[in-house]
Amino acid sequence: MQTLLAIGLSGMQWRFLSAEQRQGFHAKNYAVWAGMTPLFLDALWPAARTYPFRLEYVRAVATGPLSPIVVALTTLGEVVQIALSFRTAAFDRERVDGIIADITNCIRSL
Question: What sign for the dihedral angle of Cα 60, 64, 69, 72?
């Protein structure tokens, strides 16, 4: 309950902050910089595994000031689809490409 109250109060406070203050506000108050949202499609769509073709299911996910980069993991059978959404106000493309390369290297090393 305290977290919900704090988020509500920070939302009211947000409009009074300058652009520079906004960049550091959540970093000081919330330790989250990224989020991950997994979705196991086998449980929601059991018939999809029986299709005679490979089904690709890529989904988009929303970012926000509390998590300006979000990784969406979607599994269906033996396949894992990975999508990444980011806020351009927080990350430039070069930085995100580096993050994607790091994730890819970690997966390949398994």
Answer: negative
For residue 89, pLDDT over 80 is answered with yes
At residue 75, what is the residue type? T
Domain residue limits at 3? 1-31
Pairwise CA distance, residues 34 & 22, whole Å: 17
Element holding 101 (H helix, E strand): helix 93-108
Residue 72 and residue 40 in one domain: yes
Band the pLDDT of 108: cuts 50, 70, 90. very high
pLDDT tier at 102 (50, 70, 90 boundaries)? very high
**What DSSP string runs through 70-87?**
EEEEEEETTEEEEEEEE-
Query: Does 21 share its domain with 52?
Result: no
Residues 37 and 61 in one domain: yes
- Tell me how far apart the alpha carbons of residues 29 and 84 are, in angstroms, rounded to a whole number: 24
